[in-house]
Amino acid sequence: EPLVAGGRVFGTAPDGSVFAVDARDPASW
User: Fold this and answer.
1) pLDDT digits (tens, 9 = 90+) for 12-28
2) Strands across the sheet with 3-5, in order?
3) DSSP label at 28?
4) Rounded to an integer, what distance in angstroms lies between the CA atom of residue 10 and that of residue 22?
5) Closest to 13 measured CA to CA, from 24, 26, 2, 5
6) 9 and 3 Cβ atoms separated by less than 8 Å
7) What is the pTM of this model?
8) Under a CB-based contact definition with an 8 Å cutoff, are residues 19 and 11 in contact?
9) Burial 1-29 (b: 16+ CB within 10 A, else e)
10) What Å distances lie between residue 14 and 6, 20, 27, CA to CA?
11) For residue 20, what pLDDT is reported?
12) Going by C-beta distance under 8 Å and a sequence separation of 6 or more, which residues neighbour residue 24?
């Protein structure tokens, strides 16, 4: 489940790596 922190959304990719996207820039998702 994504974790929102500091304006960023952190999640885990299927390969187990962690990624973060800027919650204020949905196009980057």
Assistant:
1) 888 888 888 777 765 55
2) 3-5, 8-12, 18-22
3) G
4) 9
5) 2
6) yes
7) 0.38
8) yes
9) eeeeeeeebeeeeeeeeeeeeeeeeeeee
10) 23, 14, 20
11) 80
12) 7
